[in-house]
Amino acid sequence: MTEQPITIEPKKLRVATCSLAGCFGCHMSLLDIDEKLFDLLKVVEFDRSPITDIKHCGPCDIGIVEGGVCNAENVHVLKEFRKNCKVLVAMGACAITGGVPALRNNVDLWDCYQEVYHYGIGLENGQIPNDPELPLPFDRVHPINEVVRIDYFLPGCPPSADAIWKFLTDLAAGREPKLDYDMVHYD
Amino acid sequence: MIEPDVCDLPGIVERWGKDPANMVQILRDVQESCGTIPSDTLDQLARLLGVPRVRIEATASFYHFFHAESHGAYEILFSDNIIDHMAGKEALKAYLCERLWLEPRKLSEDGLVYVDDTADIGLADQAPSMLVNGHAVPSLDQTRLDLVAELIRAKKPLADWPPMLFEIPDNIRLAGPLTGDPFAPGAALQATLARGSDATLAELDAANLRGRGGAGFKTATKWASCRKAEGEAHYVVCNADEGEPGTFKDRVLLNSHADLVFEGMTVCARVIGAKQGLIYLRGEYKNLLEKLQSVLARRREKGLLGNSILGEAGVDFDIEIHLGAGAYICGEESALIESLEGKPGKPRNRPPFPDRCGYRNQPTVVNNVETFACAARIAERGGAAFAALGTPQSTGSKLISVSGDCERPGIYEVPFGVTVQQILIDCGAEDAHAVQVSGPSGTCISYREFDRRIAFEDLPTAGAFMVFSRERDMFEVARNFTHFFAHESCGFCTPCRVGTSLLRNTMDKLAAGKGSAYDMNEMKNIMHILRGMAHCGLGHTAANPVVQTMEKFPDAYERRLKKLDFEPAFDLDGALQTARLITGRDDEWAHLAND
Q1: Taking CB atoms and an 8 Å cutoff, what residues of chain B touch A109?
Q2: Which of the two residues, B531 and B4, has the higher pLDDT score?
Q3: What are phi and psi of A162, to 5 degrees?
Q4: Chain-chain contact of B579 with A142 (C-beta, under 8 angstroms)
């Protein structure tokens, strides 16, 4: 019998993703890399992510965060990611600047509550909920780099599938991620 | 509707020739007679001038001194430079507010008075200072503010206030060829007419005069290139928008040596073939306006302005004064031209430079006040005499505006090449620890570098010279400057609009004792973005104060760092307080640890 060459499977990168105050559009764009997802899965495996439905992340190589920080729960998630991920990436406009959810920063929080729970169309005897299970909102929406240290910013609303693919494959190959101009140019 | 007797809009528009290019001047007059620029005025102006309302609104909303809401009968703006802070500005402002029973940035209950801050008003040698309805009141102390409070409560019109409140001495401590020697109005012009334009240009070239606004471009080259440029008309513009904090030399030149400046402009007009000149006087120097108008009138009487100057047929030139409205960026020559044309003061793309495409897209020479004064001296005495002073690359003298921790703040006219140490000895600042040369956008030098020289070869300057003693906190100096730049960024380009705000926010975070090494790195990154990406000089230099003080006075920063790695930008638990109050929650999940 001829001896089989020993092949060592390269260790896959462990990746966690989450969406905070965002619209999941960045995650949709991640799925938009289509058939290349199979190539991607050859080099990465997913930990906590909307794709896997794992609720808490363990030690990971890369953490990808979509959306800004709008409530206390977001902070807990973000800190969990920072604690467990070697590299933390802010993906998309909301994570980087606060984006669309941050439009509420010009509206008083009390007015927001009133509008939603007291004066909304069809509401009768509306009451402001005080259940501890509900995440408590901040008075403003913040970009995630104001709460934890972020290593990379992946711009776009959403970043295109190609940009995400390029970014992840660069990281997986141990290269400094670099996006060409046409990948961050939108008009 | 504005009552016609309160604000005569058609009259104002008529006075400015129904020309939308005079929009800033028109809005100034509206603001002055109405106290505000109400929304419906904009509609009326649009109709009278035949331009879209948005164009007027763009200008009206750009300038700090224009506002749509009432600021009462008395609008008080405290100069907010670090020098004013060092002289006790914050305490004095609080004192006045207390005396008048009001809060800053809020119109008093009786609608009478409004108190706020404004960028440096060109009185750093007489700090702290303030503007009352645009008129400068220097050397504030409690006694003077007591008087001001009494006058306001008695509702005395500003015209009846004691004149001593508005007295502004020149404080020339060391005179030189510009400020010390007598000047006979007309002497430089006569020499120019006798010599001819080519020879005058040659004298200017021999003098090797370089622009005094800070950039140091060779004046003869600028004039020659403008002269050569083809156009329907040529213009001479004097940049008297002296907005760089700590600079006040133009105030003094215009107050006491206006003839020299006007004559320099007229010489320039003769050389480049211009019929019209404009002075862009910063709004903060409104108190000089009347005096300057009278000097102009006198010069017209003497035949030094107007048609056939000095009896020479075909030599026609006159000067008009335009007032600014509180925008530092208008000191940049292309933004200044935009403002002269009635638009928001946003810098143009350069090239083309104004010498080919300036005011009304015609060839225009834009020079600093001091440059024109130098040009007059050169025309009068010749280039060689001028070049005898100074260094080979920086000829002549320079007016230095000294302020801060010294015994004798004021104007020092020194030959180029003088050491910082020498000026410090002259002004009585033996225990100086640092000097900010040429204002926030200039260079911060520490006590280790006091042997450096004021010259284009070493330390170029527009004139500011702010002295800081050992007790001063250089971090606070830099922080004050970041607030200044964030306020004065014109908002046209994103790197500057966002970058200056991020710098300010990060410096405030450090000031609150919540800094980390990460923030220090971020500020360095922002500096690179500003230097490489900003549209104009404001953005390019906006990070200088931070980067230079970080390098030269690292202790001032390091003792403010809470952590080496990272610290959130805001109080996590505190930011939940509003929602806790609204929901009445106080459970474990309604709190965050600020670790």
Answers
A1: 578-579, 582
A2: B531
A3: -65, -40
A4: no
Do B136 and B189 share a domain, yes or no? no
Q: Left (φ > 0), alpha (ψ -120 to 50) or beta: where does B513 sit?
A: left
Per-residue pLDDT band at A185 (split at 50, 70, 90): confident
pLDDT beyond 90 at B1: no
Judged by DSSP in three states, B95 sits in helix
Contacts of B579 in chain A (CB under 8 A): 109, 136-139
List of chain A residues whose C-beta atoms are within 8 Å of the C-beta of residue B592: 72, 75
Which residues from A are below 8 Å from B566, CB to CB?
148-149
State the Cα–Cα distance between residues B37 and B53, nearest whole angstrom: 13
Q: How much is the pLDDT for B85?
A: 97
Instruction: Give the pLDDT confidence score for residue B595 in this predicted structure.
Output: 64
Among residues B449, B472, B495, the one where a domain terminates is B472
Q: Do B575 and A138 touch (CB under 8 A)?
A: yes
Q: Does B512 touch chain A (CB under 8 A)?
A: no
Decide which of B116, B147, B169 is a domain's last residue.
Answer: B169
Cβ neighbours of residue A92 closer than 8 Å, sequence gap 6 or more: A22, A25, A26, A66, A67, A99, A154, A155, A156, A157, A158, A159
- CB within 8 Å: A146 and B591: no
Q: Do A136 and B590 touch (CB under 8 A)?
A: yes
Domain co-membership, B406 together with B541? no
- Closest in A73, A128, A140 to B575, CB measured: A140
Domains of chain A, with CATH numbers?
13-105+140-181 (3.40.50.700)
pLDDT > 70 in chain B, percent = 99
Q: Does residue B392 lie within any of the structural domains?
A: no
Give the per-residue pLDDT at A122. 87
Determine the distance in angstroms separating the CA of A94 from the nearest CA of chain B, rounded to an integer.
16
The number of folded domains in chain B is: 5
Residue B210 C-alpha, separation from nearest chain A C-alpha, in angstroms: 41
Label residue A16 by pLDDT band (50, 70, 90). Answer: very high
**A171 half-sphere exposure, CB direction, 13 A CA radius:** 23
Say if B101 is an interface residue toward chain A (CB within 8 Å): no
Rounded to a whole number of angstroms, the distance from the CA of B68 to the nearest CA of chain A is 21
In a domain, residue B591? The reply is no
Structure tokens at B422: 């020498």
Question: Looking at CA atoms only, how far is residue A82 from chain B in angstroms?
Answer: 11
Same domain as B346, residue B415: no
Residue B3 pLDDT greater than 60, yes or no:
no
- In chain A, positions 75-134, which contact chain B (CB-CB < 8 Å)? 75, 109-110, 113, 128-130, 132-133
Q: Which two tokens stand for residue B584?
A: 């009445």
Global confidence as pTM: 0.91
CATH of the domain at B100: 3.40.30.10
Sheet of B410-415: strands edge to edge? B172-174, B410-415, B397-404, B464-469, B432-437, B443-446
* B375 and B429 part of one domain: no
Q: Are strands B130-132 and A60-66 parallel, antiparallel or unpaired?
A: unpaired
- pLDDT by residue (tens digit) across B232-288? 999 999 999 999 999 999 999 999 999 999 999 999 999 999 999 999 999 999 999
Say whether both B300 and B375 belong to one domain: yes
Residue of chain A whose Cα is closest to the Cα of B575: A138
Is there a single domain that holds both residue B343 and residue B436?
no
Q: How far is it, in rounded angstroms, from Cα B510 to Cα B506? A: 6
Mean pLDDT of A23-41: 92
Structural domain harbouring B349? 181-387
Token pair belonging to A47: 């930990």
Whether B585 and chain A come into contact, CB under 8 Å, resolves to yes
